[in-house]
Amino acid sequence: MEPEDVLASDADRDEAVARLRDACGEGRLNLEEVAERAEAAYTARTRSQLRKVLADLPDPVAPSAAPAPERTGPRTKLFALGDDIERGGRWVVDAETAATAVLGDIKLDMREAYFSSDAPVLELRTVFGGIWIWVPAGIGVDLHGSALLGDRSVQIEQPPPGAPVVTVHANTVFGSVRVANNRRRGRILRALLGE
After folding, report:
1. Nearest to 131 by CA among 112, 113, 150
2. How many CB atoms lie within 10 A of CB 45?
3. CA distances, 80 to each of 44, 52, 101, 111 (Å)
4. What single DSSP character describes residue 7?
5. What's the pTM value of the predicted model, to 2 decimals?
6. What highest taxon heads this organism's lineage (predicted)?
7. How far apart (Å, rounded) are the C-alpha atoms in residues 182 and 123?
8. Which pLDDT tens digit goes with each residue over 91-130?
9. Where are the beta strands (DSSP E) in 54-127?
10. 90 within 8 A of 110, measured Cβ to Cβ
């Protein structure tokens, strides 16, 4: 297998989109170009396809970074391309869940789910899409990431001290990521806002 035929990982795609955001900040790309290329990056299957998305951009300066922590425990991957994915009721939330929505929506209701880890991590990415997460009451949420003409929000009741925490890394381009623990209130707010 040629090196350019190597399948791209989620980390490769995230790195490519981060380079696109940097290029926008430097004035090399406009927002429309970033959105178009981010969609191509998130749907790329191989590293050579990712290189094509970044071909006319200068090489980044390599930072000296610590190696990524080793993954432990089960991992779930969800990908919605022009489609919707919904999970609810009794199901198992793995230690890590990666969800990507491109021109689609992902809705994960975890209020009745079983958690395989005390500290689950959600890696969420959207391009012209939305991801909605409902967590059980009494669980904290730690939200990180970025939004390029999109939004990320956490609307939960304050958990008690020492409560378990779900870590959410959310990156969105023209999309939204919302985490809440009361789905009914979310429906009422969306109805009032006309969403």
Report:
1. 150
2. 10
3. 14, 23, 5, 22
4. B
5. 0.63
6. Bacteria
7. 21
8. 899 999 999 999 999 999 998 888 888 889 999 999 999 9
9. 75-81, 84-87, 92-93, 96-102, 105-109, 114-115, 121-127
10. no
